[in-house]
Every structure is written in C-alpha cells, then in structure tokens.
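Shape matters. Shown next:

___
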Amino acid sequence: MVEKIEINGKIYSIKVGYYALKYAVKEAKEAGLKNITMENILTEGDEVHEALLFYGLELGAKIEGEKFDLKRKDAEMYLDNCFMDFIALLPTFFPTAETEKKQKGQKK
C-alpha cells in the first residue's frame, strides 16, 4: 500500500516495505548499529527513521511511476520537516494482528 506524505509543501508517495527496511538496516550496520535487524527496526531503530523515510519515498515514487528528485544527503531535513506525520504512517505499513482484525471488521 502506497501512502502520501507532505514534505516542504509537496506531496510525495511513500511505501515502507522490504526495500526500505533492507537499506535502512544496511546503513545502520555500516554506521555501527549492529543490533538493528529487520525484525526489531521499528522498536529499536530510532536512529534509522531517516533512512526508512528516504528509501520509502524512493520506493513509493517507483511504484507510482513518479520522478524521484530527492537526495539521500538531505534526508535528515526531510525527516525533520515531516517527522510526526512519518511516525504516524509507520503502523499502516506494519499492521499488527489486532489492527488487521479491526480493518477486516470495518470492510464487512
């Protein structure tokens, strides 16, 4: 599922999935955060939100066929601009069993 997020007044597509997780974990390990894995990145990975945002934006643009003009070196500022919105979106990409039950109940 692709969502939308506003950064600096522009709306971008975003999807945090395997691609974003893979590269965020890779960057974390390269930065010396050896305890970050794909399984615990959302609960233990405050340091990797920047990479999750960037690679999620890159994937969202690719899925939607949009031009991707953002730069990785600027991701910290993108995150600063949309931090609360990004944090609020994360659970939509990783629903729990309880969330899935609620969503199925609403569709009936």
About this structure: The chain has a mean pLDDT of 84. The radius of gyration is 14 Å.
